[in-house]
């Protein structure tokens, strides 16, 4: 996803095939449905964001090649200038080329699905397992971490809604509906990424608008732009945006906490939200 202050669309096409075999490219058509579903979640939560799609699997399979995913990451960061990347996929083993691609672009915040292994002993998949990526687990509507999530815990993890969530689905001769409910960390990951897009949008634009008069806010915004991944993770894991799950080990993202009923009457909503963000990211001032 990529957006600017004016909300202008980019000139680049909003999708590309990165599956490495152009004889098998299916253009913008989604034969499987997984990509359409994930994109639909982003559009529901962050409708003003520019969303770009990189197809990384051949038709009729969900088995991605890590080298192809690395190619897509380079394309997203260099051509699309993406602020956020959402990856509803994972690999059992680390891959050097993919990890290099992820670490090469520290200004792009990457969210990756933790996996749906449950407690069968298998760990969080790569790249959600590495520190430079925000690992996303799934939770139900009460904020309880889903039973199908790995029980491994990482300092860079969060959870978001990921059970029975309605989103778009492609229609063909065998599928008569345009919507479907799904569950999994593939669901919670784009939801978390879309929430992060809203947070970044507010920090970069809303916090500096004429509606907001908060001292040192420009310093905070500049700091977030220098270290977006670390600052976003701090925000999403804070009491402003999340609650602990039943184990206390996973922070479940519920962004409306920022606007709880302790808003001061003399301040507008934007100013109060900006002040809370400033106090969290810059508690001692500059």
TrEMBL record:
One of its GO terms (molecular function) is serine-type endopeptidase activity. The keyword Hydrolase applies. Signal peptide: none annotated. InterPro entries: Peptidase_S8/S53_dom, Peptidase_S8/S53_dom_sf, Peptidase_S8/S53_subtilisin, Peptidase_S8_Ser-AS, Peptidase_S8_subtilisin-rel. It holds the Pfam family Peptidase_S8. GO terms for biological process: proteolysis. Keywords: Hydrolase, Protease, Serine protease. Residues 25-201 form the Peptidase S8/S53 domain. Transmembrane segments: none annotated. Belongs to the peptidase S8 family. This is Subtilisin-like protein. It comes from Trichodelitschia bisporula. The lineage of its organism: Eukaryota, Fungi, Dikarya, Ascomycota, Pezizomycotina.
């Amino acid at each position: 996803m990529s957006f600017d202050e004016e909300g202008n669309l980019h000139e680049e096409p909003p999708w590309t095939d990165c599956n490495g075999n152009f004889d098998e490219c299916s253009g913008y058509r989604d034969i499987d449905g997984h990509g359409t579903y994930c994109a639909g979640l982003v559009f529901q939560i962050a409708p003003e964001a520019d969303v770009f799609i990189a197809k990384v699997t051949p038709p009729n399979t969900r088995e991605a090649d890590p080298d192809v995913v690395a190619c897509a990451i380079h394309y997203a960061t260099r051509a699309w200038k993406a602020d956020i990347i959402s990856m509803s996929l994972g690999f059992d083993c680390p891959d050097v080329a993919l990890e290099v691609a992820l670490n090469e672009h520290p200004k792009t915040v990457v969210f990756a699905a933790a996996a749906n292994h449950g407690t069968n002993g298998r760990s969080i998949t790569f790249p959600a397992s590495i520190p430079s990526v925000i690992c996303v687990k799934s939770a139900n509507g009460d904020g309880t971490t889903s039973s199908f999530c790995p029980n491994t815990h990482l300092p860079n993890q969060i959870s978001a809604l990921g059970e029975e969530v309605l989103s778009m689905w492609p229609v063909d001769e065998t599928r008569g509906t345009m919507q479907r409910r799904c569950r999994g960390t593939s669901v919670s990951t784009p939801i978390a990424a879309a929430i992060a897009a809203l947070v970044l949008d507010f920090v970069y634009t809303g916090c500096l608008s004429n509606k907001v008069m908060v001292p040192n806010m420009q310093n905070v915004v500049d700091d977030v732009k220098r270290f977006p991944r670390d600052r976003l993770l701090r925000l999403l894991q804070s009491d402003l945006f999340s609650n602990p799950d039943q184990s206390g080990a996973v922070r479940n993202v519920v962004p409306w906490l920022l606007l709880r009923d302790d808003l001061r009457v003399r301040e507008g909503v934007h100013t109060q939200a900006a002040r809370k963000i400033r106090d969290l990211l810059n508690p001692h001032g500059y």
